[in-house]
Amino acid sequence: MTDSEFRPALLVIDMQEDFCPPSGALAVASGRDIIPLINRLLALPTIPLKIATKDWHPPNHVSFAANHPLDDGLPPSSSSSSPSSSSDANPHPKPTKRPFLDTTVIANPRNPSERYTTRLWPVHCVQHTPGASLVPELDVSRVQHVIEKGTSPDVEMYSAFCPPLRDPKVSDSGLAALLRENGTTHVYVVGLAGDYCVRSTAEDAVREGFVAYVVEEATKAVDPGLWEDVKKEMEEKGVRVVSVDGPEVR
Ligand code: VGL
Ligand code: ZN
């Protein structure tokens, strides 16, 4: 392979307070520990393009368990749901579904039979809140572009490229076009969470025609117990999971 065929980009996914201990609303265990390594990657002069993403939800986002009344008439898809309180502000909150479970949502309000299953989460990364800010230790001075995703209230969006089902209601994030404008051939995906946004972004990168690496030490999973399986599934889709200590990769 000639040098002209290797133009890498670094994609730093969702390094935000809400995904980090000690106080993030959806803290990923050890999520803060990967910041020094990500800063080392950000400092590499051999990577010409560095992009960070932010999960950037409106308060009424579909992925928040607190936005799903228990009695919405839609079947839960996993486990049983029991009431959870939603907000301190309301003295009589309507019981809502619990976070960390899958639920059925209506994809198209004009056609309620169009449904899909998605995982519910605690309220996190609400636009303009402290929890949505990038962690201050991250060396953002090296980042040329910040991409916001998950901004449409009724669409969950793990991938930094575009929503699942390529929903026509939601505009593409512009990431693929940005990479192409820069002549990018290979992407290195790092950040949080390994089993959700990092994974979806890397898989979409392959679909978009890029060579995609996930740097294993530079990510952490919401569910570390499933990480080995997630890695296999990513690799089956053409993502290359690599180690910073491994052989030099191209
Ligand atoms: C993410 C769950 C919900 C992520 C975002 O960044 O991996 N996970 N929203
Ligand atoms: Zn989110």
Distance between the termini: 9 Å
Bound ligands, named by name, code or SMILES: pyrazine-2-carboxylic acid, zinc ion
The number of distinct helices, counting runs of at least 4 residues, comes to 4
Largest sheet: 6 strands, parallel
* Topology pattern, helix = H, strand = E: EHEEEEHEHEHE
Strands in their spatial order, largest beta sheet: 5-2-1-6-7-8
Helix content: 10-25%
Structural class: alpha/beta
Quote the beta fraction.
15-25%
Rounded average pLDDT: 89
Globular, elongated, flat, extended or rod-shaped: what is the shape?
globular
Radius of gyration based on Cα positions: 18 Å
Residue runs with pLDDT of under 50 for 5 or more positions:
79-87
Extended strand count: 8
Describe the structure.
With 250 residues, the protein is an alpha/beta fold. 16% of the residues lie in helices and 19% in strands. It is built from four helices and eight strands; from the N terminus they run βαββββαβαβαβ. α3 (194-207) packs parallel to α4 (227-236). The model is unreliable at 79-87 (pLDDT under 50). Bound molecules: pyrazine-2-carboxylic acid and zinc ion. Belongs to the isochorismatase family.
